[in-house]
Amino acid sequence: MKAIEILLVEDNPGDVRMMSETFKKGKVHNNLSVAMDGTEAIAFLRREGKYINAPRPDLILLDLKIPKKDGKEVLAEIKNDPDLKRIPVVIVTASDAEKDLLESYNLHANCYIIKPVGLDRFRAVMESIENFWFTVVKLPPGD
User: Fold this and answer.
1) pTM of the model
2) Residue 113 sits in a domain of what CATH number?
């Protein structure tokens, strides 16, 4: 069985480390790629520049508050691109603002998760993402 490809778009090194460690210990074989800002995420997804050989993600975990292009701009670009729009995008953010929630769903986010406080709760949420998206959901085929 091929590994699940995950693109994490996150600029907080601590969150990147926690998510990376959680997915390494997960039940599903996966490869986690990280983009630290919105411009890098789009280049990765479009396989531009140094990302010419980037894998197509099966799932994107996207923070809203990222530099260069914010998460909503990245989400809009993904969902308006015929080659990318079927990739599920999970918003993982600290924002519990209703405006952010509604805008994310209006831009066709597949789900919206507020980052929990505390290491144990954070890991539990990451494990639930893994369990749901990789064992319950049937993902669309890649390229």
Assistant:
1) 0.90
2) 3.40.50.2300
